[in-house]
Amino acid sequence: MAAAADASDPHVAAEPAAFALTPEAVLDLLDPKNPALYEEWGRARGIAGKLASSVDSGLLRMRTPRCTTTTMPSGRAVFGTNALPEPVLKSIFQFMWDALQDKTLLVLCAAAVVEMAIGVYKFKFAPEEKRDNLALIDGGAIVVAVLIVVMVGSISDFRKQNQFRQLSDFSKSLSETKVVRDAETVQVPTASLLVGDIVLIQTGDVVPADGVLIEGFQVQTDESTLTGEPISINKDLGNDPFLLSGTKVVSGVGRMIVVATGVNSLNGRSLLALEVEPEATPLQEKLGRIADMIAKFGVAAAIAMVVVLLVAYFIASPPSTKDSFAITQDVISLLILAITVVVVAVPEGLPLAVTISLAHATLRMLKDNNLVRHLAACETMGNATTICSDKTGTLTMNKMTVVQGVLLETHFEHADIPATVSAKLRGDKASAQQTAAFAKLLDLVAASLNVNSTAAETRNKDGEIAFNGSKTEVALLEFTRLLGFEYAKHRDAVKLTAIAPFSSERKRMSCIMRQPADTAFEAALGLDADEAAPAGAAHRDWVCAKGASEIILGLSDRFVDGDGRVRPMTAAKRAEFAGIIESFASQALRTIGAAIRPVPPAHAAAAAAATDASNGDGNGDGAEVEIPDSERLIFVGLFGILDPLRPEVPAAVASCQSAGIVVRMVTGDNIATARAIARSCGILTADGVAMEGPVFRALPQDELDAVLPRLQVLARSSPLDKQILVNSLKRLGHTVAVTGDGTNDAPALAAADVGFSMGIAGTEVSKEASDIVLMDDNFASLVKAVVWGRCVYDSIRKFLQFQLTVNVSAVVLTVITSFYTTVSGPKTIVSVLSAVQLLWINLIMDTFAALALATDPPSPDLLDRKPSSRAESIISPDMFKMIVGQGVYQVAACLVLFFQGPHWWGDRVYDPNSVKEVGVDVTTASIIFNTYVFCQVFNEINCRSITRDINVFKGFFKNGMFLFILGLTIVLQAIIVQFAGVIFKTNPSGLDWFGWAFLLLSASALCLSASFGNDTAVEFDSADHKASKPDVSLKSVVEAAVQKDSEDSSAPGSLTRANSADRSRELWFKAIRHTRMQVRVVGHFMAPKSSPMTKASAAPSSFVAMHLPPPATTAPSASAAGDAALPPNTVAPAITVSETSAGRDSGWSTLRDVVRTVSVVNAFRSGRAQRIDFATLQIADVDAIRRARAVQNRAAFTAAAAAFAHSNSVAASHASISASHSTLTPVRKSRDAFH
Fold it and tell me: Can you give the residue ranges of the P-type ATPase A domain (predicted)?
């Protein structure tokens, strides 16, 4: 019974045993296009029958008696899924094989083979007295080092491949397609399309599979991806109905039936034969050139070293005491050392660092709603100098609502909807007939809005029904629904005979709808005589148009008044409507106009003939019907649509401006609306220029170049205007980022340095042309892309600084020590850093450092600097100084240990074999090797900053990978030194506490001096460290001053943050110098030991003392104090008050803090040299009397301090201190007034 019931259900289909078409037969239809076979198969309707589908209802789901769920017929598996072929993934072993193809590693492997051969000879076949039980260790160590390098690089590449595959899979999972199944419109993943599905297409779509057009209006496709010809091809139902996968719908709307999917489609077959090479980003290419230069330097140094050492070995100091075997071994050791120098000098870690950084950034950017499609955009975005942003959905929330409007000359607001609006519109008419006619008119206007729309309610993949489509159209559909008119009923009741979709050039969308004729209604409406319907006509065609309000108003020569009559559009009435549009726009409302027009009888006859020829069944010739919407329209409504500004946009715009990035709004909205939105989000400034697209494109080039720097808003712009803007800015040297969501935005997106498409509102064509997809259409996400771009750029520069330091120091150290050991040392060609040691250093330098430095998270202060120019060198002057300074220090430290170390610990164990292998004794060799490695460890920390910010510990605990790599390097180095001395040519018994302490002190000296050299508190970001920080430090005082200065600079007339970045940096360093000078000066003014003010106070000597008075203390009498003075240049940490001033602030401490704080604030308040004058501290309103008194107090204190400083007697000291103490009370009053 159940089976019979299922069979009677029209929406249930039995699984077909076979289909009348096969994938091979469909290929004959499409490649090449075969119209004759298309006609033979019965066009679209016949093809649908052969595929067990329906052009009306689509595929029918299949039910089984034992299952209540509905599924698609499994027999369609013969056609395959719509999943396109993926590139073949490499296994870990293939990556290892690829890594072994590196030329330097191949040479190193050859050297290892030679070394192993010598080791086998010495171990087994050499004379008894020359045999070496450890001879195989050197060759084996080189092999193990090569294997480790190959394994680490291969694993990194394998992880990168999986990360990019994850990114690609996520991108594809976002693609969805509207299909008709079971006569219901649903959204399904594009990969789930089946042969026989009915797909809805519209402007901006990328055709998801091969298909045949069922019906369509003005459908044009771009097939350049398949044919290479960049022309639009018209699609009709007779000559060319073929829609090919991967092509782009340039214009039009329609429906098609899928005939081939996945690997059976033309696009899928093309991808099967395509091998895509990984793209190289501009930064990778630039670093590749740097790597080649460094490699040439390394090869030249190695060749020169071999030549010089061979000459020195055989000529300058010939080895007369060695036999041929020893000489051969020395020469082979020299060649291996030279090869190792080349391996160390070649920076193969540079490309790896770029890849790791980009892979890390792209995945993290995905969490910030940035889907990166082209890796080059990630690094380019960091140096963008201007952003041309859309308004709708990017700066605004894209949640539109009709809040004001004029409908049939009746004004309304959102609060009036629905009851009040309906009452106002219907009103009290003179008669029931007039009331009925007005109701029909309102129904006609609502139908024009409901039918002339591509938005609709669909079921998404979660099974929920929601509006899908343009948010503007959705707002109008919701408005008509509130008025009581359902869009679905109107669409079912009328028939569309022509559609002209919205385009940026026309600024409107139009259609012709056909409904039953009503001569009485038309007579009541008062149409022109030439527009009257013919007698006895069964139906009536109406033009429905909506779009930009001033465009629709300009095309209208009539309007409908409040009585429902068509009236001529007088100049006064046009001005009234224009004033309403301006009023709405000034309130940041998007204005949409609506108009109708009856189709003239002659035009209607031609349209009817074309429609009857098609009949909507796919068997007509598909002749296009022209829509007469360019004149004689009847203006019926004006709608003000509110799209609220995103709350995070003003802050994001301000961040861009502080980062030196100019933000420009490019929109199709009214210029008044654009101005209002731009002002509210901070884009349009007082001296900025707002311009309309037609005016902009008409400017000559000289005027265009003059206006571009101040152009901030471009309204009523077309895609051509956006493209002109992008190309002009690039011509002036800007790095341009552009957002776009429409099909016609594709040229501008492609022309920009970085193109951003909209993930929600964007068309598939715009996404294909873009570099990054904004998943949430949010401008704030775009700013995050800037931060990540700068983070990637900085990460690469950090690694480059580290790598070049090791390159220079390792090569120089190896060459110098090997030359010394050959000429005047033990007459052996050896280096203090052996080949195995250099390979371990190379592993730290190339792989570990790339992982550590390339994964640093971004910090907000990345937006506090201007973008880098295209011509700027990747190595900045600060980086160059750091590379030279660190390199010189490392080489100097190791050479001092090399030459002086044996004299410092000469009483320790002396191993002659160690001297022959590394040129010095084993203890010195161990300390030098350990010192050099730990120099790299501390230098890795130093390289976390590539600017003048000396706080290298900022964000130290936020990068888990960096901490892990650092810890792993230290642990492995300790294991090597303590337990692998035989392999690495170090002390087999390891280092004692003295050796470890000495090397840590030597290696960390430069790091510590760089971090603490300027008396700046080092700031850790860990919560544990924050808890242990002192209450107030000098840095906190300076930061408070900076904050106050930034607040003052926000006042009118002050410099903007972007323009004062360099000035703030200058003031920062000046404040540090100024404060240190003042602290030293005040430090010389200390009370003598016999003074009652020398006892320590309970109050801390800090800025807190100015706000919280210390507890009351009683100082001992003067007679109880000694007469001896404090040692010279000693600063008393705190001074107590006398009995008469108990409970008050500490005198010397407070005075020193006041002087220091005032000098810091004054240094930040102005760039010129400031005197220590309380009158310059204008934080609070202080009247002239207090300021004058403060100046007098300062003068009195200065005179007393000077007298004290030059006094040699205790009495004179007491007198000067008393004079100084007498000034504390007025100073304290001045301070209280300041607070």
Answer: 175-269
